[in-house]
Amino acid sequence: MKISRKKALKSITLGLVASPVLASQKNDKDLVSFKDEFEPAWKSSEEYTLKVYNQMPEDKMDWKYTPESFSWRTQFVHCIDFTASQICGRLGI
Fold first, then answer.
1. Each residue's pLDDT tens digit in the chain (93 positions)?
2. Are 80 and 8 in contact (CB under 8 A)?
3. Helix 72-91 with 5-23: angle, nearest 10 deg
């Protein structure tokens, strides 16, 4: 799976923008509480993720620690996809 740094960062940004917009369609008290707690946690996670991601040189993105494992790039995309799926599932979107 060949995903550029630009596409990965775009996916993270779109997730950041889309989740609160889609979640705002519900007026549930629990959802408001969730959004209040989620925002600072998401920001912290975003900062950490970008810090780690930006430390990996582009020429090392396809590195694998074993032949059977995901490459670093594929694992990163897998984490983005899993996180987005979990958020969507929990918000019912």
1. 566 777 777 777 766 656 665 555 555 677 778 778 888 988 898 899 889 989 999 999 999 999 999 999 999 889 889 988 888 888 888
2. yes
3. 10
Structural contact between residues 72 and 62, judged by C-beta atoms closer than 8 angstroms: yes
* Residue indicated by tokens 């920001």: 43
Identity of residue 15 = G
- Its pTM stands at 0.54
Contacts 24+ apart (CB under 8 A), 62-70: none
Q: Which two tokens stand for residue 38?
A: 């989620």
Quick count: other Cβ atoms within 10 Å of Cβ 43?
A: 11
- List Cβ<8 Å contacts ≥24 apart for 78-84: 80/8, 80/11, 80/12, 80/15, 83/15, 84/11, 84/15
